[in-house]
Design goal:
- By secondary structure, the protein is of the alpha+beta class.
- The protein has one domain (2-175).
- The chain contains seven helices and four strands.
- It has helices at residues 2-23, 26-38, 42-54, 60-75, 103-115, 129-140, 169-175, and strands at 78-87, 90-100, 146-158, 161-164.
- A hairpin with a 2-residue loop joins strand 1 and strand 2.
- The protein starts with a helix and ends in a 6-residue tail after the last helix.
Length: 181
């Protein structure tokens, strides 16, 4: 009976160790990161909130509206791992992500603001950024098309743990559906 218990404990330990090892692969780390967006992980929401706080053109209501808009966007993100290459302590994981395409709408909104400046002036004739922000968000909500982007995630092994390196602005704009080709 004791031998059976020891054998069972050994099997459990082997699976636990293998399980930990399987979670520490470049592919698994990228999957974990992208799943954080899809599941609206606390870390992702904190970053979103910090970004929205920095935008002084947003009222509290607009901030809430933008937050809900982006949460929906992140939940709908789809990804597929295409390739991974490991070279020593460095790795690259190639992923195709599919997101709502906001790039043309955002560009069109900016062009509209430039050509119709009077619509975004307050009662004193001064430009009011919040009027444009509201206009832009309303246009973004009309987006229907999706776009697929390729992102190469770079990872570095630190203390035997694979870590995704900071994403570039270009890659973040792809995740947010705002990348302009």
């Amino acid at each position: 009976m004791k031998k059976m218990a020891l054998y069972a404990l050994a099997v459990i330990l082997v699976f636990a160790i293998c399980g930990c090892e399987m979670d520490n692969t470049p592919v698994k780390k990228v999957e974990t990161l992208l799943t954080k967006y899809q599941t609206l992980d606390d870390e992702v929401l904190k970053d979103l909130n910090n970004t929205l706080k920095k935008d002084k053109s947003l009222s509290a209501n607009m901030r809430k509206e933008y937050r809900e808009f982006m949460k929906k966007h992140y939940r709908n993100l789809i990804y597929e791992i295409k390739d991974d290459k490991i070279d020593g302590d460095m790795a690259v994981v190639t992923v195709e992500i599919t997101v709502r395409d906001y790039s043309d709408i955002a560009s069109d909104a900016t062009a509209y603001r430039i050509n119709n400046e009077e619509e975004f002036l307050d009662e004193n004739g001064n430009y009011k950024a919040s009027l444009f922000t509201k206009y832009r968000l309303d246009r973004l909500k009309e987006a229907k098309d999706n776009v697929t982007y390729t992102i190469e995630f770079n990872l570095k092994k630190q203390n035997n743990e694979w870590v995704v390196e900071n994403l570039s602005r270009e890659d973040m704009s792809k995740i947010n559906g705002l990348y302009e080709n």
